Amino acid sequence: MTTTVAFIGLGHMGGPMAANLVSAGYRVLGHDLVESCLSAAVAAGVEAARSAVEAAAVADVVITMLPAGRHVLSLYGPEGLLAAARPGTLFVDCSTIDVADSRAAHAAAEAAGHRSLDAPVSGGVVGAEAGTLTFMAGGEESAFAQAEPLLAVMGKKAVHCGDAGAGQAAKICNNMILGVSMIAVSEAFVLAESLGLSDQALYDVASAASGQCWALTVNCPVPGPVPASPANRDYRPGFAAPLMAKDLQLAANALRAGGIDAELGLRAAELYARFAEGPGADQDFSGIVRAIRAATSNPTDTQKGSTT
Questions:
Q1: Could you give the C-alpha distances from 79 to 1, 63, 75, 83, in angstroms and in order?
Q2: pLDDT value at 136 more than 70
Q3: What is the mean pLDDT of the chain?
């Protein structure tokens, strides 16, 4: 018997993920408020649902990929997805949201008689299209086991991180590392330029030495050394700077709530928020190297701590 999946949120990430499920033989009912996103998904074999509730009512599994926690909780609310779904439906939220919101979503699903998993992703649009995402999952072991075959279609790795909200916790910790490291790598390239060292020379050394990291060897922030990096496409995302800013803000909220002394994480959140609101609004997050370079050429801005 074919598993029916309701997929709510068919944007840059959700659309390709739903298409991969269709290619694997799943029946996918999709819904998105943006008509162009829904049309693209339909072209890939997704069946259009008139509403998210209509899709959830006949699904065995409901997957959501939404911008923020408020959207997830709104759809999980009274007369929403949880009320429409058949008892025991598995809800998998792949959105990146606040840990507290994720735990609230789990509690609502459980109260309504359903199973749930938070399963945010890493890998960006390229990973969504290629089916090579990494899933970080939180929830009961049995829910993870039920979701695992679907996650294996959409990604190359799925890690069960713990109880409700643990997937979201892993995601924001991982992306705090990524945001801080991208700033460090970008600053190093700007420093190297000022010292007369070529980008290629720095890359050749650091990529084979203790400075090696994903932000350098895969998503290198300067054109040339890594041909596939967004820097060689005028910083077209990739992983958009506003999404990094969002994830770092979630990390900053958790840091403050936990009383964690994490100066770099908080500072990275500030820098990316400013970058995303300005020149980085439509750029890959690695484009922050441009902002660092611009601030370096204007000592007044640098002294103020500005990156715009």
A1: 29, 18, 9, 5
A2: yes
A3: 94
